[in-house]
Amino acid sequence: MKREYQFDVAVAGAGTAGTAAAVGAALAGAKTVLIERSPYPGGEATHSGVAAFCGFYTCGGDPVKAVAGVGEMILKEMEELDPSSINYIVSATGNKNINFHPEYLKCAMDNVLEKAGVTCLLHTRVTGVKMQNGQMTALECTDDEGTFSIQAKTFVDATGDAALAHLAGAETIWGGEDGTVQAATLPFRLSGVDTSCDLSPAAVEKAVIKAKEEGIPNLSKEKGFILKREGSDQVAVLLPSVMPKSLDCREMTAMEQETRKQVLSYVKALKKYLPGMENSELSVIGPSIGFRETRRIKGRKVLTADDVLSRKKCEDGVARGGWKPEIHKSADKMATYIDVKEGSWFDIPLGALQCESVENLYGAGRIISADEAAFAAVRVMGTCFATGHGAGVAAAVQALQGEADIRKIREELVKQGALI
Fold it and tell me: pTM of the prediction?
């Protein structure tokens, strides 16, 4: 007999956006399920080892908090588990970020999801969707016991790749006008590092150039970030990079294998040429390549570069963005930035989270409806918490009351501590 489950809200993808969406929906009173193909939540933050949250605060000097709500719940849970698991730092680019321990993040998300009453289904893949009269009615899923279906009134696509929208046949967007997306990076962690030494991007560049001159192969980017936490000899290195062309298995395999080759070369280069790394040891690769950009939805509204750069406010905002456009369009160079006024933020409207052609499907995280430059500002994980929270609450309001009443959505978000 085929297994069938029924919920008010179904969320696919348990990264920062999906976790926030599921918690927000559940706290709004909706019976909520969160589906994730990995064995733990966190997405890029845990499965790719990207150990820094950008976007909780506005850019530059005098940073202002732009994200609270579920994101703040997760941070507080991490502090309760171990105060040293998160550090508030000023990055090499002069922005206030939060460096964290990915293993504690997994457990903190587990705890917050459990407290909110979310049903979590890990080790689960969505293989198809069912549609009727322009609405999504069910997800077809598989686990190691076979197939099953999840029926819901509303759905949140927080897969990072707009997988639900893609399976539904909705229009999705790949990259900008030139059809290319931002570089993908495979972070790795080194232990035994003397973090009192200079680990700046400039120091990294000097070491990598020397390694290239020596003939060490498979080194792409010369300059990049090394993330450290206070009191720890372990660092995360964000260097091995490739340019994604598609998400098919052949391309994915090639990218994973290529960046793992790069990791070993970077380890050799840094140990030999970067002071403080002499006694370091490779502890973790990835485990999965981290994407900045793949597919995103076409929404009822499109967040534009002008909206971001002018720090536009709107009455139908359901999240705040505080970051500036950060564009990684090369596998061998650091990002380019478009500057914004320090301490400023912009609103993200509900329509940017609503799929244009599927009435009950919301997008969250790095798949929301935005043009190329605006996307470069909203894809960071702090902002993903905010858009996920907004999408989850909106999905709950629509599921429980039959329509996405913006006034009720905003009231519920405020009740849950979100900044709007």
Answer: 0.96
